[in-house]
Inverse folding.
């Protein structure tokens, strides 16, 4: 495959994902039709099937692209952080604020059409949640090397799940949610760091 062909194929895929992402918030997964995605993108329905194979695969691809955008944003917050706690806080605030502004996620959390999109973030969203937790764990270790990989992974999974709970049940602002998550995690982080230092002293 030539580089021109690769670029053309990538552009087509992005065009189809853009079309699906624009339709999904109003129609949900069940109401989305491949023919409508094709019409919006200006291609044939067969072209959509050739690229993604099924409507489920197309919807999942849209969700994974949204997740990639979030992961890039989270990575930037950690890279600019002065400490582990400020990095976690910045990442949580960004995640919640960006999610509430994203049409697809807002629909999944708050509209009738989005009810069948919610599992992409929860029960069927394991690849997305795992990617977010893996990224966070790596950033935690970079900012606080006294953590063990196991404790970093546990902290990261906890932050991801708590952040998701604040998205599903939005009773606080993003800043308030981040502060409450840190209030719970700060003592645990101190304990993990202390245990890590203790083990180093014993070795």
């Amino acid at each position: 495959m030539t580089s021109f062909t690769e670029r053309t194929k990538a552009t087509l895929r992005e065009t189809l994902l853009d079309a699906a992402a624009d339709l999904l918030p109003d129609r949900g997964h069940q109401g989305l039709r491949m023919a409508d995605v094709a019409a919006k993108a200006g291609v044939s329905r067969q072209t959509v099937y050739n690229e993604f194979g099924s409507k489920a695969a197309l919807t999942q691809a849209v969700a994974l692209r949204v997740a990639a955008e979030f992961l890039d944003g989270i990575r930037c917050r950690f890279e600019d952080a002065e400490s582990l706690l400020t990095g976690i806080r910045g990442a949580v605030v960004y995640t919640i604020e960006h999610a509430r502004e994203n049409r697809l996620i807002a629909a999944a959390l708050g509209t009738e059409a989005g009810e069948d999109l919610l599992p992409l973030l929860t029960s069927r969203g394991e690849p997305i949640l795992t990617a977010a937790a893996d990224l966070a764990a790596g950033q935690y270790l970079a900012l606080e090397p006294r953590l063990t990989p196991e404790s970093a992974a546990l902290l990261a999974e906890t932050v991801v799940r708590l952040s998701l709970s604040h998205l599903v049940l939005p009773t606080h602002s993003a800043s308030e949610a981040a502060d409450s998550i840190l209030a719970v995690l700060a003592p645990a982080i101190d304990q993990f760091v202390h245990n890590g230092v203790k083990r180093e002293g014993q070795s």
Summary: The mean pLDDT is 85.
